[in-house]
Design a protein that fits this description.
The chain is of the alpha+beta class. It has twelve helices and 23 strands. α1 packs across α8 and α5 crosses α6.
């Protein structure tokens, strides 16, 4: 993409309404623009990041055996009355009526709807277990939306739902999703800590939230260093092997981990001092096991192995996809701007033409850009070099390919790595080989 023809409206000054780092940088880098309180339009560069995160989330859900579907955003109030949640959910739920005065709502979550889908479709234990998920926009009418996409009213979420014959099967599904989550966060370049949590309005009696570490996080986190040494993407854990899942779950729940609200200094103090860690954290995911909380009141029954009806055991699993964009920035930035992990960056590299109109610079930039295609942002603007450097750092491209008259005349480019500022002068072919493997 050529920057001269792109909708990437960067800002030099920080908007007054931006209170935290991610909000400031997302506005300054032209990733989003606010359209109403707590509601944002995702501009092209921001949407590319959002899409990359969703892709990784989707790949790990698929690898865990979950099936993707798509449920509507608008739900019937009658379904929520069946579960008993309609009146108790609170003002965060946006309640509406259609022209026939039927009561509807903009869904904040989908337990009722997926239960209704399954009770229409699954009638025997032979159809279980199953896990389904979708990635969908949701709405919760926050009383004080703030911090940009970190606490907005409209947000993109991956929510999954498991259905099992019994408690044993439900626990296996729960552990499978926990492993899928840890693999997802690792692929996103984040260090995540799973912590036992309250179930809140979702309900149930088993719940974990996932906290990623960020210096500007919203809560204090205390944890065992054991979490830092595990490679969740290794072959050590087969996500479809019950024994591996049990071993993994033990590794996740045995080490100490707590937020400031639940921190017990007496248990912290029992750790070897070399293993004690603390920092700031941001919640980016939550998983729940709640048994028959929805299947029973909504009369979802299937025939069991003994020929008798039973209520399937359920769980739900959420990841804040749009919230993750802000969380990654909170965890990975410096004074100059964003530092994107390579897996989710909007562009793998920025090509900076320091002298547009110079035949050697133009020719070399065009040659490199042709090889990168959509993976690179070509800064071909008639702007000073300082402006181009500042915008490239602000946007956080993992790599910058810098082309100036002296280097172009010698057939060289300067390659800069954003994460540490390391620079080297190489041939265009060496730069392509390093960044694209060609």
């Amino acid at each position: 993409m050529r920057l001269s023809r792109s909708l990437i409206p960067t800002l030099k000054e920080t908007p007054a309404e931006a209170q935290i780092v991610s909000h400031r940088l997302m506005l300054r880098a032209g990733l989003v623009r606010q359209t109403a309180s707590g509601i944002y339009a995702w501009l092209p560069a921001g949407y590319r990041v959002l899409t990359n995160i969703a892709r990784i989330v989707r790949e790990e859900q698929d690898a865990a055996g979950a099936q993707e579907l798509l449920m509507p955003t608008i739900q019937s109030a009658d379904l929520w009355r069946e579960s008993g949640r309609y009146d108790g959910y609170g003002k965060e739920m946006l309640r509406i009526q259609d022209r026939h005065e039927r009561e509807l709502l903009y869904g904040p979550t989908n337990e009722e709807m997926i239960t209704d889908i399954f009770r229409q479709s699954v009638h025997s234990y032979r159809a279980l277990p199953q896990i389904v998920y979708h990635i969908q926009w949701k709405f919760r009418d926050e009383v004080r939306p703030r911090f940009g996409v970190m606490r907005g009213r409209e947000f993109l979420m991956k929510d999954a739902y498991s259905f099992d014959l019994d408690h044993k099967g439900a626990v296996i599904s729960y552990r499978k999703m926990m492993l899928a989550y840890m693999r997802t966060f690792q692929r996103l370049g984040l260090r995540a800590i799973p912590m036992a949590a309250d179930t809140g309005p979702i309900g149930g009696d088993l719940s974990h939230e996932f906290i990623i570490l960020a210096a500007t996080g919203e809560s204090q986190v205390f944890y065992d260093a054991a979490f830092e040494s595990i490679d969740y993407t290794s072959r050590e854990f087969d996500i479809h092997a019950e024994a591996d899942l049990a071993r993994f779950y033990t590794m996740m729940t045995t080490p100490y981990a707590a937020t400031d609200e639940k921190h017990d200094p007496a248990l912290f103090e029992k750790l070897d001092p070399s293993r004690r860690r603390e920092g700031r954290g941001i919640e980016v995911g939550h998983i729940f096991y709640f048994g028959t909380k929805y299947s029973q009141p909504m009369n979802f029954t299937a025939t069991g192995p003994d020929g008798q009806p039973f209520h399937p055991e359920m769980g739900s699993y959420g990841i804040g996809v749009s919230r993750l964009v802000g969380a990654v920035i909170e965890a990975s930035h410096d004074e100059a701007g964003i530092i994107w992990p390579e897996a989710i960056a909007p562009f793998r590299a920025a090509i900076l033409n320091l002298k547009p109109g110079d035949a050697a610079c133009d020719g070399l930039c065009e040659r490199v850009y042709a090889r990168f295609g959509a993976a690179a942002l070509y800064d071909d603007r008639e702007e000073r070099a300082g402006v181009k450097f500042a915008d490239a750092d602000l946007l956080g491209h993992p790599w910058q390919i810098i082309v100036g008259p002296r280097g172009a005349a010698a057939g060289k480019v300067e390659l800069k790595r954003r994460v540490d500022g390391a620079r080297e002068e190489v041939s265009p072919e060496a730069a392509l080989a390093k960044l694209l493997g060609v």
